[in-house]
Amino acid sequence: MPLIDKLFDLMVSQNASDLHLHEIQVPKLRVLGELFPVPSMLPIYYDEIRKMLMEICEPADWEKFEQTGDLDFAYAYNETARFRANYKKHYNGYGAVFRMIPSKIQTLKEIQAPAILSTFGMYASGLCLVTGPTGSGKTTTLAAIIDEINHTRKKTILTVEEPVEFVHPQIKSTIVQREVNHDCHSFGDALRGAMRQDIEVIMVGEMRDVQTTSLAVKAAEMGQLVLATLHTNSAIKAVDRIIDVFPADEQESVRDTLSVAMRAVCAQLLLRRADGHARVPVHEILIQTRASANLIREGKTNQLTQVIMSGRNAGMQLMDDGIERLLDIGMISSHEAYMKCTDKERFAAHAPPGLGAN
Questions:
Q1: Which of 31, 43, 52, 167 is most deeply packed, by most CB within 10 A?
Q2: What is the pTM of this model?
Q3: Domains in the chain, start-ordered, CATH in brackets?
């Protein structure tokens, strides 16, 4: 039994989202968004952490890690869970962070997603984004959308990830999952191949560079449904992020393409529940309309807030509206609402002492 499995057992029992291992430090668990040192454990040093990391890593991957100082892969732990592993070298030696991936793919209802998210998988083509900071559940939400397609429709689906996280069974759809650096050289290579492989739905783990973003938008424009993630805190910023990744002389063309290809954006955050026992999601939703398409084309994305406010009956929502609703029903504390909201003046009455608007 690998030494690290005892820590994985502890993660599962504590419902921790992450395990942090760093040489000359005490191992730490992230529980409900906060880091805690593992009780009764001492700092780990070179021999111990090296053995821990080597035991669950393929020899070829370990050699790559030793050469480059970085490594991403997935580790299946019995039937309990999978872990997304990131190895790194740092000033004091070896380090690693493990993110727990539940073995069971949760439904959109189980993850408390708004009903409108079920429509993301129903589009015949176009680009749908799920955005949010690290640890906000973007991958879990995308997996739930793919799972709903898989249970209800006969589609050909490709996921491109680094690494593959949730493993989808073959139900109604035909699903192919490709891992960057193992099954394909890059996100770009996999996306180029998808255009020749009779793929109807593509899930892109992350649009992290101009090549991946360009190919994803092109695939959406050419008739495939593309589901992807970005690291932004709002739906509106997601649109700007896509456009800004391109050189200035290409941005006008990208705006034109995006105004046609964009279908929907969901930005999400995880907030600590008032009782301290769990976290609750909150969402911002932007759905394509004629008005939103025109604003994207004209470079007036700052006005998309008005589109969301006027589209509430269609399922659209601002992040602060969702936060206020959770606050009103007592699901979250005033402190959490103020710290996570966008418009601080709107929540000024709930500001902790010393942080209120002047």
A1: 52
A2: 0.90
A3: 5-102 (3.30.450.90), 115-317 (3.40.50.300)
